[in-house]
């Protein structure tokens, strides 16, 4: 589904990613874990075309996409839930969802998709006329995910969905993400909350200073001495 080979991204010539290679198989739930500033957000932004890659290449569903404009990538089925949710605070829940149907293909099916999103997130249905800025953090996270699902994507990019949420709400958000993954989507999840991520994903890459330092199954990483010391506090 997604194949990234040896990409590099710089900000003002300062490297943020170097020689990063990762892949996600169809229907797979893959994580990228790492500390602050490791380059996790930059990786998702490179896949979405929000930052240019200056080396390597990115393939999606057999097509090379790293030269494509960012607005073309949702058309191929890539949906990005950004860090910090970035809902439109003054618009209602429903208006935010409508704006998620951004591509020509998703617009005709928009009303049907809204109902699919409401079935998945009944709390959003209850609050459909409420301004998004008045929702709780967990509800805003669900709205951001729901907005991405309006594209009926094949690959969902999730940037730190646990950020700023109480542990009980993180559990709720993650149980929804697992439900979504069971629908057959491929998911690439970026997280600092490593215990949470390793509890749900099947494979992960550890990003350190813009490079992949370790990768493997979630089970293998849970027992890796470096991961246990650096990220699991063991
Ligand atoms: P966090 O969890 O704190 O969001 P991260 O792992 O997602 O961290 P990035 O946000 O991708 O890391 O940042 C990687 C590096 O790139 C950091 O050194 C950061 O300071 C730098 N960086 C990120 N965005 C920019 C930008 N717009 N301009 C300049 N440097 C940036």
Automatic annotation (TrEMBL):
<feature type="domain" description="ABC transporter">
    <location>
        <begin position="2"/>
        <end position="234"/>
    </location>
</feature>
<dbReference type="GO" id="GO:0015807">
    <property type="term" value="P:L-amino acid transport"/>
</dbReference>
<keyword id="KW-0067">ATP-binding</keyword>
<dbReference type="InterPro" id="IPR017871">
    <property type="entry name" value="ABC_transporter-like_CS"/>
</dbReference>
<keyword id="KW-0813">Transport</keyword>
<comment type="similarity">
    <text>Belongs to the ABC transporter superfamily.</text>
</comment>
<dbReference type="GO" id="GO:0015658">
    <property type="term" value="F:branched-chain amino acid transmembrane transporter activity"/>
</dbReference>
<dbReference type="GO" id="GO:0005524">
    <property type="term" value="F:ATP binding"/>
</dbReference>
<protein>
    <submittedName>
        <fullName>ABC transporter ATP-binding protein</fullName>
    </submittedName>
</protein>
<keyword id="KW-0029">Amino-acid transport</keyword>
<dbReference type="InterPro" id="IPR027417">
    <property type="entry name" value="P-loop_NTPase"/>
</dbReference>
<dbReference type="GO" id="GO:0016887">
    <property type="term" value="F:ATP hydrolysis activity"/>
</dbReference>
<dbReference type="InterPro" id="IPR052156">
    <property type="entry name" value="BCAA_Transport_ATP-bd_LivF"/>
</dbReference>
<keyword id="KW-0547">Nucleotide-binding</keyword>
<dbReference type="InterPro" id="IPR003439">
    <property type="entry name" value="ABC_transporter-like_ATP-bd"/>
</dbReference>
<dbReference type="Pfam" id="PF00005">
    <property type="entry name" value="ABC_tran"/>
</dbReference>
<keyword id="KW-0472">Membrane</keyword>
<keyword id="KW-1003">Cell membrane</keyword>
<dbReference type="InterPro" id="IPR003593">
    <property type="entry name" value="AAA+_ATPase"/>
</dbReference>
């Amino acid at each position: 589904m997604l194949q990234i080979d040896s990409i590099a991204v710089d900000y003002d010539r300062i490297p943020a990613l170097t020689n990063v290679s990762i892949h996600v198989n169809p229907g797979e739930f893959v994580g990228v874990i790492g500390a602050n500033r490791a380059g996790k957000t930059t990786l998702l932004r490179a896949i979405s075309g929000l930052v240019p890659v200056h080396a390597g290449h990115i393939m999606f569903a057999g097509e090379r996409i790293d030269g494509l404009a960012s607005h073309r990538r949702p058309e191929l089925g890539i949906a990005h839930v950004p860090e910090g949710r970035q809902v439109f605070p003054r618009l209602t829940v429903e208006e935010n969802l409508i704006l998620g149907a951004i591509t020509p293909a998703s617009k005709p099916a928009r009303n049907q998709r809204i109902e699919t999103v409401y079935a998945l997130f009944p709390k959003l249905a209850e609050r459909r006329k409420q301004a998004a800025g008045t929702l709780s953090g967990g509800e805003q996270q669900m709205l951001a995910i729901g907005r991405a699902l309006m594209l009926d994507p094949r690959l969902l990019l999730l940037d730190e969905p646990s950020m700023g949420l109480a542990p009980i709400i993180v559990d709720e958000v993650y149980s929804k993400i697992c439900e979504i993954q069971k629908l057959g989507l491929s998911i690439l999840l970026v997280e600092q909350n490593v215990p949470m991520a390793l509890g749900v994903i099947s494979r992960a890459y550890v990003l350190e200073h813009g490079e992949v330092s370790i990768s493997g199954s979630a089970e293998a990483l849970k027992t890796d001495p470096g991961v246990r010391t650096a990220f699991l506090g063991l």
